[in-house]
Design brief:
heterodimer; A: 163 residues; alpha+beta; B: 549 residues; 5-stranded mixed β-sheet; 16 strands
Chain lengths: 163, 549
Amino acid sequence: MSGDQRAGIDAAALAEAVSSAVAAHRGEPGPLMEILHTLQASIGWVPPEAIGLLANELNLSRAEVHGVVTFYHDFRATPPAATLVRICRAEACQSVGARALADHARDRLGIDYGETSADGSVALAQVFCFGNCALGPAVEVGGLLYGRVDADRLDALLDGATS
Amino acid sequence: MSTGSPVVIYVPRDSAARSVGADEVADRIALAAAERDREVSIVRNGSRGLLWLEPMVEVETDAGRVAYGPVTPDDVDRLVDEGLFDGADNALSQGLTEQIGWLRDQHRLTFARVGVIDPLSLDDYQAHGGLVGLRSALDLPPAQVTEEVITSGLRGRGGAGFPAGIKWQTVMNAEAGQKYICCNADEGDSGTYADRMLLEGDPFCLIEGMLIAARAVGATQGYIYLRSEYPAAAETLRTAIEIAYSRGLLGASVLGSDTSFDLALRMGAGAYICGEETSMLESLEGKRGVIRPKPPIPALAGLFGRPTVVNNVITLASVPGIMAESGAAYAELGVERSRGTQVFQLAGNIARGGIVETAFGISLDDLVHGYGGGTRNGRPVRAVQVGGPLGAYLPVEQFDLPLDYEAFAAVGAMVGHGGVVVFDDTVDMAVQARFAMEFCAEESCGKCTPCRIGSVRGVEVIDKIIADQDRDSNLVLLDDLCETMVDGSLCAMGGLTPMPVRSAIKHFPDDFDRPGVTPPPRATVELVDRHAAPQQPATDGIGTTEVTP
């Protein structure tokens, strides 16, 4: 697993990011999820060091914050790769060849779901449904959704992402 | 034909259309028009739901809107030279949109405006019948609004099919200082995309539905819980909510009435289970999306312990139409206890996939072969899965089944959210059954044992069956395990996962009978139970003996 050797975030910058995320949702009931989204949008991930800071700010236990961060697939505990490639694994995409497409992606990138390439350029993730079920297989590259993706189209998208 | 007024061109902004190039098509049209000195006004509408024709471009003409599709970016210059801006015929012409048989034969109520209007124009919305239902509801006593929804027979479109009006009545009658309306837009089921398309194509319709619900039950705060996999819907909703505030539709004194209602968008974070209503409430409270046992029901003790209406997007979006016409008019459509229309979603390996809104009672065959035109690759249809990943697999022999909640339940299936996923004759149903268990293992919240452990054991047992290891006794074991999950799980995730598994075994026994020919799919995710303490290594029978009810 890479990620750990990539740049982290210094303590002061993190504290600043956490307090501004908290401030953005001050007064909202049950704000932790919203704060985590805001934090991740601003620095790209939720560093483990943020958990104690958030717990302090919100008067929650560290366990509660940790529990929420780790429950949801979206919150990342490591800095993000330059490009995130997400492949739909759900039934509608399966029916039009998503399994073979995912195998192709893993072979080509040499990584499995949940992993990041050694140079930190591409991360691969599974998703259960993008709601593009009539135009599958569906793949998201760098935040953009693509439909009717076959191996050639995926190669072209990956070329674009990694070049 | 070039007159002073610009030609109005519609290019959908819907995610599905954009996934196959709609943004580029819109750019190329703008460019082509500029090069030819034609004035055009490009409206980014929702999708009409004829998804196999996306990107589907429409051109406004004196005779009506003319459709072209599927239009690729490279088609644009040629089409423009062939008279696209004047609605001329060409190889991609579909004729007048309203006259396309596939669309014309539907009964669009909830989706009446989707693809027709500019989703973010409140004026366009009102010009197409928007806010009529809300104005009528604001003039009525709350109890009468609830009564109208009960009369309509509207049932929860999220899958469970609970009568919406009865739920509203429970919340209305509950004594509380604060009540909530929560819209469940966590549309995680594969094969369903109607929520997304409505949110992207007609967001004010949902807002209006929530306002009517608020008026009926006396709620002053609402939340839309939207899955993070739908960023485009989130953007559209945020803008729509801002517009609604600026135009006096949200906030204090809705449209000048004594009803006030605040609405906020909250995002999920990639957890399928948060589509289960109690799990969604936990998530809205900023906690882990772990389900709550019921009772108490959310209608009495929901968000932050207060009485809460939790309805799906399509349920709430159906209400404005009901209030604009009447509950009785809505109830005239449909069959038996399934009243009104259902927004069916044709998905998977299908030639003509998309939105088919029609009265309940249509047969599976009419949907799959009639509207859908069979498979996309031309192979015979072998199975469909109806109602999402927790729904049953049905063989073609059952295609005369009417889409009706009770008729489906009677054969061990469910209509669910109305998604229909089509598979051709190459599908291996043992692999599909295995996936159902694997999906449950991945997405279980971990609260109850039958779901958390049962699904992991389910994968293992199915692997043994596929490998022809004591197949007969393992099939018995699998059935036992399914029974435990059905009877012992706290929510529909564990309780319904056996539905696709058992239906696959029942209708496609041959697929479970072929020793050694089907290697298990390449392991994609380690089946580690990440919610619980380390488990014992698997041994036969552990799934049934470990479970405590």
